[in-house]
Amino acid sequence: MPDDTNKTFLNSKKNMTLFICFLAALAGLLFGLDIGVIAGALPFIAKDFNITIHQQELIVGSMMFGAAIGAVSSGWISSHLGRKKSLMIGAILFVMGSIWSSITPNSEMLIIARLILGLAVGIASYTAPLYLSEIAPEKNRGSMISLYQLMITIGILTAYLSDTIFSNIGAWRWMLGIMTMPAIMLLIGVNFLPNSPRWLAAKGNFHDAKRILDRLRDTNEQSKRELDEIRESLKITQSGWYLFKSNSNFRRAVFLGIILQMVQQFTGMNVIMYYAPKIFEIANFTNTTQQMWGTVIVGLVNVLATFIAIKLVDQWGRKPTLVLGFLIMAIGMGILGTLLYIGIYSSYTKYFAIIMLLIFIIGFAISAGPLIWVLCSEIQPLKGRDFGITVSTTTNWIANMIVGATFLTMLNTLGNAITFWIYATLNIFFILITITVIPETKNVSLEHIERNLMAGKKLRDIGQE
Ligand code: BGC
């Protein structure tokens, strides 16, 4: 083949991989949309259906509950039916849930619709990063997982924007219904995705696995080498549950995954994601338009700071970035609590409070947001990967649900200031956890981490030479 043609050919292969990754990351966009949309819609829903705080928390929390169930089941679905079918099931549930939530006659039906959306989000949050890591070439794997986080934040921002636009006319049904469009896009897009070569190989279909790798990798030698590696790794059969019962070192990795995801959620990030307009109201921004545009700024800062994280994720190292992030979050939440304690009266304190809120967001977006997902996919030994990631993803959603379902009650029973101080204290505590338990995995091969873990090294040392 002449040189030029060869180049275009390679480029188009690269573009195809990118396109496939983009389609799969659309699942992240929907994850974000569904997390973000409720913040702006909730006040209007509460007014229309005349519901209590507890019912509002149920509407927020039901999606997380569904997501926890979705994450638990997706380990089984994606290993039996494949990553592609699993994403397809997720997409169908996204479409159903979006339509249902927009035409719901009452709050009970809305809770069920949000549960269905939750199932979709849970399946997507397990399958999409897994699929991405199996499709992406080795050298791009880390940034692909961060790309997924970026899509989540873009989804949240888009939801905030749509909420703001529709809030002028209080059209919460449109806010929820508009989600049907990207859900249909995902449903159509998934049909163009190839099956994961790794999954095909695990099912004994090496012929198709090779065919797909040939389409995605630059050269046939590369795809052959990758298939050989997959063949090699398949010699170890994936027996997560048995390994969990029999091997205390693997149990430590599962335990670390649980801690990591709990830490991510108990930073309090989702308190802001779900209740941002409410927080603006507490900070004395009484006008709904101000609250809604303030929320859009929160979403925008989240996206921009995640961009920074993608650039820095492999340079700074996991531990220092996490420590810095928790410190920033503790300062943001702590000062915000103090301002609420003193009382926010002047416009100076009002804006100072919002700056603190944004500082908190930056702290999360550069650290715990992407890094926890990256770490969770790095620490599990190959043999127990499916099991370990199922457990950590499910923990993410259970902890997420607890945070979403308790915030308003905490505000009402403990008061605004104490609620924010509690989250500030937790972030300080997470600095200690980072120093004592979390390993540094930068520039270390996954095999090396696995060897150290299985040799019984302390968790915080499994990334060391
Ligand atoms: C978390 C979500 C959160 C989002 C915010 C993700 O990493 O898992 O719970 O809403 O980041 O950007």
Describe this structure in words.
The chain is mainly alpha-helical and 465 residues long. It has 2 domains: 12-193, Growth Hormone, Chain: A (Up-down Bundle); 240-465, MFS general substrate transporter like domains (Growth Hormone, Chain: A, Up-down Bundle), CATH 1.20.1250.20. The protein contains 20 helices and no strands. Helix 1 (3-49) runs antiparallel to helix 2 (53-80). The longest helix is centred in the N-terminal third of the chain and has 47 residues, at 3-49. It is globular and about 65 Å long. The chain binds beta-D-glucopyranose. Beta-D-glucopyranose (BGC) binds at residues 35, 149, 152-153, 156, 264, 269-270, 273, 302, 369, 396, 400.
Please describe the topology of this protein.
Elements: H1 3-49, H2 53-80, H3 83-103, H4 107-135, H5 141-167, H6 172-177, H7 180-190, H8 197-202, H9 206-216, H10 220-234, H11 240-246, H12 248-266, H13 269-282, H14 288-312, H15 318-342, H16 347-366, H17 368-378, H18 385-414, H19 416-436, H20 446-454
Helix pairs in contact: 1-2, 1-4, 1-5, 1-7, 1-13, 2-3, 2-4, 2-18, 3-4, 3-7, 4-5, 5-14, 5-17, 9-10, 11-12, 12-17, 12-18, 13-14, 14-16, 15-16, 15-19, 16-17, 18-19
- Cα separation of the termini: 45 Å
Strand content: under 5%
- Largest sheet, if any? none
- Which outline best applies? globular
- In terms of structural class, how would the helical and strand content be classed? mainly alpha
Q: Gyration radius, to the nearest Å?
A: 22 Å
Query: What's the number of domains?
Result: 2
Arithmetic mean of pLDDT: 88
Instruction: Supply the number of helical segments.
Output: 20
Q: CATH homologous superfamily name of the largest domain?
A: MFS general substrate transporter like domains
Q: Name the ligand types.
A: beta-D-glucopyranose
Q: Tell me which oligomeric state these chains represent.
A: single chain
CATH topology of the largest domain: Growth Hormone, Chain: A
Unreliable sequence segments: 1-7
Q: Count of DSSP E strands?
A: 0
**CATH architecture call of the largest domain:** Up-down Bundle
The share of residues in helices is: over 70%
Q: Identify the CATH class of the largest domain.
A: Mainly Alpha
Helix and strand sequence: HHHHHHHHHHHHHHHHHHHH
